[in-house]
From TrEMBL, chain A:
Residues 119-272, 415-550 form the Nitrite/sulphite reductase 4Fe-4S domain. Keywords: 4Fe-4S, Heme, Iron, Iron-sulfur, Metal-binding, Oxidoreductase. InterPro entries: NIR_SIR_4Fe-4S, NiRdtase/SiRdtase_haem-b_fer, Nit/Sulf_reduc_fer-like_dom_sf, NO2/SO3_Rdtase_4Fe4S_dom, NO2/SO3_Rdtase_4Fe4S_sf. It holds the Pfam family NIR_SIR_ferr. It comes from the Bacteria. GO terms for molecular function: 4 iron, 4 sulfur cluster binding; heme binding; metal ion binding; oxidoreductase activity. The keyword Iron applies. It comes from Pacificispira spongiicola. Signal peptide: none annotated. This is Nitrite/sulfite reductase. Residues 52-110, 348-401 form the Nitrite/Sulfite reductase ferredoxin-like domain. The keyword Nucleus does not apply.
From TrEMBL, chain B:
This is DUF2849 domain-containing protein. It comes from Pacificispira spongiicola. Pfam families: DUF2849. InterPro entries: DUF2849.
UniProtKB/TrEMBL annotation, chain C:
InterPro entries: UCP030820. This is DUF934 domain-containing protein. The lineage of its organism: Bacteria, Pseudomonadati, Pseudomonadota, Alphaproteobacteria, Rhodospirillales.
């Protein structure tokens, strides 16, 4: 993974000092809250219901054991002993004090971490495929490009006061595990016919109040021109994006209002004009320097199976079930990708205690090549490179720490935003809905029978819980002072990205749990065969059979 | 006129606070100064402006209150969660301190 | 109002006109963009030195042909959170080769000073209360920059390889 050199280290340290000064000026009354708020947001600091909340960047979801231990330390010393992994591969601490924040940021800088641009109307932390460098279907490792984008976008003098936040996601695989089509810019690394690497550039995706799927504006931008192309998109957006209404300020609205053809021609004209100016593109030497940090680690030459692993799988049903859901094939023979579920039955999605963080760090040190850890937008963790022969030991240690729930991709693997329990923007609670659905489907055998199912819950229309792209999506709203929940079906965030459609009238706090179960039972009753996934059945039959069961025959 | 109290977060640490009768920003909603008439509510609004300008609190806002079992309780769920803590972590927030108990949030 | 240029407070020779303030021959005058477009020929023929004030939404490209006649272009920040003027400044410097003064007006604050400078803005109209010394400190906050902009600073990606080359 990437390591800071003196320049990165200096810049991050200087940013902490700058913020320390800004905090002091705020407390002394030299800055008003209106002046200070955009500054603290660009340092990841929100004010929530109970306290300040600090969102720490995990650039493109990649970190390591040493950094995880620092997060555990911060959770213990500056927070209440836990953290919350988010749907953008970051981690949040919920009980932060403003006057301690500069010290926390200094501690993060000690391990090459920061909270830069994790909020604010700027280019946010770039996200990427969490299986990067390990996935079987990978064409190009997205991490080097995400790091190149991180550096280019950090403290960008032109793009720090955009109309609204701006999120970029990168994947280099055929299966989209980074939800690139619901980002302001989605990048897909690919090879052209000549074998050169470049990027398909999609713009205008997003969730929130007006969900949209991104549209391709260029099939292939040669990799060495990626930054100038991004700069062209950002400049067009900065100059033309709406600033009169914050709900219409994202680039998706601009793309929708002026049309994708017009956006494409504006971006292309801007990009062409830029070619005559001092280039913002990286020279090859620098590209290669950054890429060198992401070259494949020194994998051992191993057999494609391991006797101890196979024996355990044969003898231990729980282990076998965990392998089935949480272990994925690796591009290197004899290795596997291990998903760590942060969704124990009845638990809070994405929450992890400081002790569990330390355990994951210990396991990564002992068994993961390079001590590497990844965070996923599904609010889980990944050990990207683990030997098959180590899987039993990894499982035993995860299980002892209550981190071996074998439900990745199943009904219990629910995405939920913090909702009204923590968030100032929320209209309803999300977490208790997730907890009760997870309890309703607690039986893992039942989850396996149901098969792949993505349930996603947001506590307000901002859609941090990705409800628009859930196979089953739940949106909490406030209806005359009561929590009320709308149900959508058919959303997905992968290469067949789609926005879910609302089923009809919403449900009460208690009724929504039954509604989800009704949807699942309906699917089980009408699926063509046990291999037909929920999302495929829905594609085949449409919403009517589900509506009929939810609302009675008249509704359908 | 609906009963109102003044909530805010303390600037330095973000702690949820309510303006009390003594003019102190208290960490317990049960100590909140509750006003029902125009003059009283105007006084709360004045206090919000002053404390904001003096950099003592941020996000000062009037909230609706009602009396339940003789004690002032915020009307809205969000404000009850602010007064107690997350409903999913009863071990955290003000609800974890016995003297802050308001009863069940939701 | 005070004007900061080259890290110092300087006296401001320019009058900022509105849509119908008369332009007098001996007074350098900044006119709004719309007025400049409407009265371009007569303004450029007048004896006065002319500057133009760009507000967010104005078409900076429309000035491209007249830049050698304009001593000052003011870019307005009605709120510091409206960042369009950063793009205007970069276009003026990098695309259209403008070498005159680009002056930030409006909600101009210390915490955006460095961004503005890097975008190509070189004069700053600030309120009289502004502590100029604190602004100078802002320039010291960062020793490096990750990306190329309108200033002369060498980005980190260039420094990295000059350092390596020098060491070898």
């Amino acid at each position: 993974m990437y390591r800071y050199d003196e320049f990165d280290a200096t810049l991050v340290r200087e940013r902490v000092s700058q913020f320390r000064g800004q905090v002091a000026r705020r407390v002394a009354g030299e800055l008003t809250e209106d002046e200070f708020k955009p500054l603290r947001l660009m340092n990841g600091l929100y004010l929530q219901i109970h306290a300040y909340m600090l969102r720490v960047a995990i650039p493109y979801g990649t970190f390591d054991a040493r950094q995880m231990r620092k997060l555990a330390h911060i959770a213990r010393v500056y927070d209440k002993g836990y953290g919350h992994f988010t749907t953008r591969q970051n981690i949040q601490f919920n009980w932060i004090k403003l006057d301690e924040t500069p010290d926390i940021l200094d501690e993060l800088a000690d391990v090459e971490m920061h909270a830069i641009q994790t909020s604010g109307n700027c280019i946010r932390n770039t996200t990427a495929d969490p299986y990067a460098g390990a996935a079987v279907d990978e064409v190009e490792d997205p991490r080097a490009w995400a790091e190149i984008i991180r550096q280019w976008s950090s403290f960008h003098p032109e793009f720090s006061f955009l109309p609204r936040k701006f999120k970029i996601a990168v994947t280099g695989a055929t299966h989209d595990r980074a939800a690139v089509r619901v980002h302001d810019i989605g990048l897909i690394a690919k090879k052209n016919e000549a074998g050169e690497i470049g990027f398909e550039v999609m713009v205008g995706g997003g969730q929130g109040r007006t969900p949209m799927i991104a549209k391709t504006i260029r099939d292939f931008v040669p990799r060495d021109h990626l930054l100038s192309y991004l700069e062209a998109v950002l400049r067009v957006y900065n100059m033309l994006g709406r600033r009169d209404n914050k709900y219409k300020a994202r680039i998706k609205i601009l793309v929708h209002e002026v049309g994708v053809e017009e956006i494409r021609s504006l971006v292309e004209a801007e990009w062409e004009a830029m070619q005559k100016e001092t280039s913002v593109d990286l020279p090859t030497a620098e590209r290669d320097r950054i890429a060198s940090y992401f070259s494949a680690p020194a994998f051992e030459v191993l057999a494609d199976t391991d006797r101890g692993f196979e024996a355990r799988r044969f003898e231990d049903r729980d282990f076998a079930a965990w392998v089935r859901s949480n272990v994925k094939p690796h591009r290197q023979t004899g290795y596997a990708i291990v998903d760590i579920s942060l969704k124990p039955t009845g638990g809070i999605p994405g929450d992890i205690t400081a002790d569990q963080m330390d355990t994951v760090a210990d396991i990564a040190d002992a068994f993961a090549v390079g001590s590497e850890i990844r965070a996923t937008y599904q609010q889980n963790l990944v050990l990207p490179h683990v030997k098959l022969s180590d899987l039993p030991a990894v499982y035993d240690r995860l299980k002892a720490a209550e981190l071996a729930t074998g439900n990745i991709g199943l009904a219990g693997d629910i995405i939920a935003c913090p909702g009204l329990d923590y968030c100032n923007l929320a209209n309803a609670r999300s977490i208790p809905i997730a907890q009760r659905i997870s309890e309703r489907f607690a039986d893992l055998n039942r989850q396996f029978d149901i098969g792949p199912l993505e349930i996603k819950i947001s506590g307000c229309i901002n859609a941090c819980g990705h409800h628009h792209v859930g196979h089953i999506g739940i949106l909490g709203v406030d209806r005359k002072g009561e929590e009320h929940y709308q149900l959508t079906l058919g959303g997905r965030a992968d290469e067949a990205a789609a926005i879910g459609r609302i089923t009809g009238p919403g449900f009460s706090y208690d009724g929504i749990i039954d509604a989800v179960e009704t949807v699942v039972e309906t699917y089980l009753a009408i699926r063509a065969n046990p291999e037909e996934r929920f999302i495929d059945t829905l594609d085949r039959v449409g919403q009517d059979p589900f509506k009929e069961r939810l609302y009675g025959a008249k509704a359908a | 006129m609906a009963a109102k109290a003044l909530k805010a977060n303390r600037l330095s640490d973000g702690e949820a606070v309510w303006l009390s009768r003594t003019g102190i920003w208290e960490t317990r909603v049960t100590l909140a100064r509750v006003e029902e008439d125009a003059d009283g509510i105007a006084a709360l609004e004045d206090a919000a402006r002053t404390a904001t300008a003096d950099c003592i609190v941020v996000d000062a806002e009037l909230i609706d209150m009602e009396i339940r079992d003789g004690a002032p309780v915020p009307s809205k769920l969000k404000e009850r969660i602010r007064a107690l803590g997350p409903t999913v972590r009863l071990d955290l927030g003000k609800q974890a301190e016995p003297e802050s108990r308001l009863g069940k949030v939701a | 109002m005070a004007l900061i240029k080259d890290g110092k407070q300087v006296s401001d020779q320019w009058l900022t006109a509105d849509a119908d303030t008369p332009v007098q021959p001996d007074i350098p005058t900044i006119v709004p963009f719309a007025r400049f477009i409407a009265e371009r020929d007569s303004l450029l023929r007048s004896q006065a030195e002319i500057g133009v004030k760009l507000s967010p939404g104005d078409d900076v490209a429309a000035l491209a042909g007249d830049l050698d006649r304009l001593k000052v272009i003011a870019v307005d920040f009605p709120a510091f959170t409206d960042g369009r003027a950063y793009s205007y400044a970069r276009l003026l410097r990098q695309r259209y080769g403008y070498r005159g003064e680009i002056r930030a007006t409006g909600n101009v604050l210390r915490d955006q000073y460095l961004f503005m400078l890097r975008a190509g803005i070189d004069a700053f109209e600030v309120t009289d209360k502004t502590q100029i010394s604190s602004w100078i400190d802002a320039l010291e906050e960062f020793s490096h920059y990750y990306q190329k902009a309108s200033d002369a600073a060498q980005p980190v990606w260039a420094k990295r390889h000059t350092t390596v080359a020098a060491a070898e």
